[in-house]
Amino acid sequence: MCSKCKDKIHSKFKSEKEHETIDIKDVGRQDKTVDQKSQEMVQQDQELVSISGLQTAGVSSSPTNDKLINVEEYQTEMINIHFLALYFDGSLWIGDGAKRNLHHTFTSLQNVQLLRDKVKVVSCSNMVILGIAVTPANDILMATGTPSLMQIKAGSNKVSESIYCEDMSRDIWSVHVSKDGRVIMGGVRFVVVMDTYGSYLTRYENDKNKKLIFKGQLVHSITSTSNGNIFIIEYFNKGVIMLGKDDVINIYTGHPVYNHIDSFHPISAVTTPMDNVLVADNGNHTLHILDSNCQLLTVYNIRDIGIRRPVSLAIIMNRPFPVLYIGCDVCESNSKSGKLYKMNIMEC
């Protein structure tokens, strides 16, 4: 019997190979299998709600709505907001990654202020930007795809070369400054840690077995926690790598409940005031919150509050609750520039 049409098929019939033949006693068992799969899917959806609070049919509220509040949306002049950094005066530095030609009205690096529902551009530069970080002295450090980090000194708009240079003349693609002032730089399958004065502290490239630590194309996003752990996100490597003092300690590859929608696509990470790590998952429109040891705490589906394709994160403590900024890719056919979101995030 054919499992699809339940008609007898002669072995010489042309489409015989396109059909699955089963014993007549097994008819009905197939339906039971389908029912079991349906029940498993429902159970997965229920688990999705109970763990992360994602909104599904029959759920009137979710922790996403409860934990991410006072959401404000801003339209920028940039195509994509790939990079975000908070400045000491409350303004933001945003970058879209590529140098733009004269036919565009925007530039690849902007210092902006959010005024009510408007974005005011304070200053701008037409240059390649691959990463932005702010030092304890309020200098802006920028990764531009060269062996040296560029900088904008506090109180100046002039771009100059910094003291932070990769000694093997390999290009820097990402930068992060830790709370204690360490400058952490990443490139093609390597990470370098320097002190405030530009002296080398640690280099991560091969593990204790002399195998490559990083498997992706290049290091894209870096953050760190107060216990000294460093969190790395690479292009084309769907995981978050946690580095200890000398080696890889842990790797987070997403949660199967969320990955069944689409594979895990981490793209940006930032450390929260409570020393947790917030990871933006661009493919699933979610935020994963990890503790300082790379263990999953919860996941928020930000698509439930109208935010899609997050690509950059920044956070600052502004009592009583932290303020989270999310920069996004263009994902709507009628939108020509990236959106920026500002909100309060609870218990993070």
UniProtKB/TrEMBL annotation:
Q: Which InterPro entries match?
A: 6-blade_b-propeller_TolB-like
Gene3D superfamilies given in the database record: TolB, C-terminal domain
Entry-linked CDD domains: Bbox1
Protein's name in the database: Uncharacterized protein
Recorded source organism is Mytilus galloprovincialis (Mediterranean mussel)
- What lineage does the source organism belong to? Eukaryota, Metazoa, Spiralia, Lophotrochozoa, Mollusca
